């Protein structure tokens, strides 16, 4: 079996796809322009309206209104949280809790005011901090920097304050430390990324807030509270914990106002809003609506506020590529609105009474300024977020060529003369040669080398080499086959029949790819994917019925016109019914998008701790534990049925004892997390230890199982039933005596005669052999064990009630495999070493379907950030581990189905049924006769190792092709619709999630195929050890 060439070929194909993704991304997701110039007091300005007042020493451009300011950022403080409605008799948990703000605004209207603050998307914390401090607009690609905050290089508010000698004190979210390093006069940072921690940051701020305010050694004090945001992520806004947290913020504000001096300005702001599920990151109405409260003990409102006429001079001077016509239009809008403002201001100063005409003019003036702001924002967005069309087209072409390469190579892999030298070695040499030329040119010219472009050129060269050699060998084959028309015609007929079988799966795949170009279908893909999978399965069964594969051959005594269905046909129909039921039930675990009105997210997505009823919580907990126990029992039952739990090997012992232990630890972790925090009392420290200990124990034990699966993957039990070749009798060791010697020897002779006669009668005069139990499913057994271990690891990263979804996932995968085996068996003329396209397509569709059925959506607000802290309650020292945990949670279905992809090749061999006449024999003879009629099952793969390796290669290429075609459709949709209204809301996130899903799936596919080859290597070693025996 050629192991390394197959893995290298698949890895090379993945590299080609990765190169296309990187090239397209470099042209589609560009970073915005950041201005490097900074403002200073010496910048020339138009003569301000307060020129006669003079500027105080240390001030810049204008006299300061207040010498000190306190900025309180309550993360995710939505406007609905701050608004107070006395008419509501029964407010929701997040309503009417900040009553102190209402009290101040009502009793001191000239001192306090509440505003609705509109946050620019994406509404993630780091981007909102950038927007607040720099005045710039965040961009879509910056969302990925939420894991790692990079220092702000452009001009910002904090940098100006520090530059002018102001003392800035900060306390709270440690994200500010990464954005503004060494900028604070004094700072108190607290870990912020653990969304399950509601109190650490807030309590840390309260320990220093009042003493710092009273100390007076500050000019600007910033406090960033996170409890409200984390409570939304953990419980949602409509939860009693949210009421407690908002009440705490209300009491904090009441105490803080008492400590403020008369010369201090208080700003209370939310950086963004919150959806009904407590998430944020998108641009829905609830996410962009935040609160802004302004208060000072000196009057703020009612006096004239001067304005500055700066227009876009600084930006237009730095970015010379702004459209001249648009810039001229904006200047005209601003000038006209400013002239109207001056006229109205002059009339007001003359003392003219208010009139409806004046109010109407004022309303039109506000509309003009709003129009100017909207159009200026649009111009900035267009200039900051640009595309590189050439790179996007090249990336699409590279991905399309990779799909074509997988399709062509999968057809060539079926040929026994598949040459890895011409198909793999020559393309790799071409790619390396191009990379060497580019590197040499970089050294000679001393110009900057774009790594993405270099890798893309190398990938394109290797693709061209592959197609060149494939076309050349095709021409030589056609020349050799020119004198044999019958063979050529037969080959053509077989090829036509093979292409006819592609119509159904490729047609369904084409429909799915076309749906990628519609934002409505992308939004509703959680319902489209199960529908396409069900359609593919039903049409496949209908096709078998159309060709008469479901009916048995007519018997001599059978009435004409009557059809008798085979037993496998009824089994196939039952499996189809179970598949449709699984698809229906999986829709219960859906996540909502804000584009779908009146959609309520599945209650199964919420953790058990969010349930108020103790009885309901206990009931769901028992059901979750039962589903987990059912999964363990089903896996062990399957392994025991095929004889893979009989040996005493390390992996078998691990499955026997560690699987239940892992399930118990997961159940204990669920029990701890489902308990209410305020009812634990003195056990809080023990609970914190359990929250860390149980997940890490699961991680460690599951990792140990994976290592055992790699070390000793053979789960075969050997029973040596051969006759003994030693002496018939053993010599008598006692005192010499003829009578004693006879009494010792005769029983041995009699016993040996009995054994010999019994052996001849039972085995038909043939010599007994070594019996190996579980050898026919040795490949599948290891894969099933590894998939179960991965399922444990992925399950603990989800909420408790997702155990139902994972049980459905394994059940649906089993049903799909059984349907595939039945279809292969009923087809009759199907090649056993070739997995049909319909099975591969259905397997990919199932992975997509369960992406949605595990509570995910291709949008950033739907990411389960809490997975990063399962077992790591105190946070992380690096960003790699939380990114891996969140990625594993998001792409759990992709991981499981990609690793389990080789089962599509193995399962029809596992399901080989022995002769049906064996069932009619007597029970006592079945075990003996089974040894003679036992099917070879997966050992048939070892009869032709070259075909086995070619089948694995072909299966991997088909899987990459189906994934690549879906990725190509997303790429085309994002490129063609890049100016679409919904590009950053629908198409760009879909492309990113599809690209990441493809990368995860391709890597896991390589791991799954590598695991099969490791088992094959271990089986070969096992046979070598067995031969001397």
From TrEMBL:
<dbReference type="InterPro" id="IPR045687">
    <property type="entry name" value="PIGG/GPI7_C"/>
</dbReference>
<feature type="transmembrane region" description="Helical">
    <location>
        <begin position="957"/>
        <end position="977"/>
    </location>
</feature>
<feature type="transmembrane region" description="Helical">
    <location>
        <begin position="451"/>
        <end position="471"/>
    </location>
</feature>
<feature type="transmembrane region" description="Helical">
    <location>
        <begin position="697"/>
        <end position="718"/>
    </location>
</feature>
<feature type="transmembrane region" description="Helical">
    <location>
        <begin position="619"/>
        <end position="639"/>
    </location>
</feature>
<dbReference type="InterPro" id="IPR037675">
    <property type="entry name" value="PIG-O_N"/>
</dbReference>
<keyword id="KW-0472">Membrane</keyword>
<keyword id="KW-0325">Glycoprotein</keyword>
<feature type="transmembrane region" description="Helical">
    <location>
        <begin position="803"/>
        <end position="826"/>
    </location>
</feature>
<dbReference type="Pfam" id="PF01663">
    <property type="entry name" value="Phosphodiest"/>
</dbReference>
<dbReference type="GO" id="GO:0005789">
    <property type="term" value="C:endoplasmic reticulum membrane"/>
</dbReference>
<keyword id="KW-0337">GPI-anchor biosynthesis</keyword>
<feature type="transmembrane region" description="Helical">
    <location>
        <begin position="424"/>
        <end position="445"/>
    </location>
</feature>
<feature type="transmembrane region" description="Helical">
    <location>
        <begin position="833"/>
        <end position="852"/>
    </location>
</feature>
<feature type="transmembrane region" description="Helical">
    <location>
        <begin position="997"/>
        <end position="1023"/>
    </location>
</feature>
<feature type="transmembrane region" description="Helical">
    <location>
        <begin position="392"/>
        <end position="412"/>
    </location>
</feature>
<comment type="pathway">
    <text>Glycolipid biosynthesis; glycosylphosphatidylinositol-anchor biosynthesis.</text>
</comment>
<feature type="transmembrane region" description="Helical">
    <location>
        <begin position="770"/>
        <end position="797"/>
    </location>
</feature>
<keyword id="KW-1133">Transmembrane helix</keyword>
<dbReference type="InterPro" id="IPR039524">
    <property type="entry name" value="PIGO/GPI13"/>
</dbReference>
<comment type="similarity">
    <text>Belongs to the PIGG/PIGN/PIGO family. PIGO subfamily.</text>
</comment>
<dbReference type="GO" id="GO:0051377">
    <property type="term" value="F:mannose-ethanolamine phosphotransferase activity"/>
</dbReference>
<feature type="transmembrane region" description="Helical">
    <location>
        <begin position="891"/>
        <end position="910"/>
    </location>
</feature>
<dbReference type="InterPro" id="IPR002591">
    <property type="entry name" value="Phosphodiest/P_Trfase"/>
</dbReference>
<dbReference type="Pfam" id="PF19316">
    <property type="entry name" value="PIGO_PIGG"/>
</dbReference>
<keyword id="KW-0812">Transmembrane</keyword>
<dbReference type="GO" id="GO:0006506">
    <property type="term" value="P:GPI anchor biosynthetic process"/>
</dbReference>
<keyword id="KW-0808">Transferase</keyword>
<protein>
    <recommendedName>
        <fullName>GPI ethanolamine phosphate transferase 3, catalytic subunit</fullName>
    </recommendedName>
</protein>
<feature type="transmembrane region" description="Helical">
    <location>
        <begin position="651"/>
        <end position="672"/>
    </location>
</feature>
<keyword id="KW-0256">Endoplasmic reticulum</keyword>
<feature type="domain" description="GPI ethanolamine phosphate transferase 2 C-terminal">
    <location>
        <begin position="836"/>
        <end position="997"/>
    </location>
</feature>
<dbReference type="InterPro" id="IPR017850">
    <property type="entry name" value="Alkaline_phosphatase_core_sf"/>
</dbReference>
<feature type="transmembrane region" description="Helical">
    <location>
        <begin position="528"/>
        <end position="548"/>
    </location>
</feature>
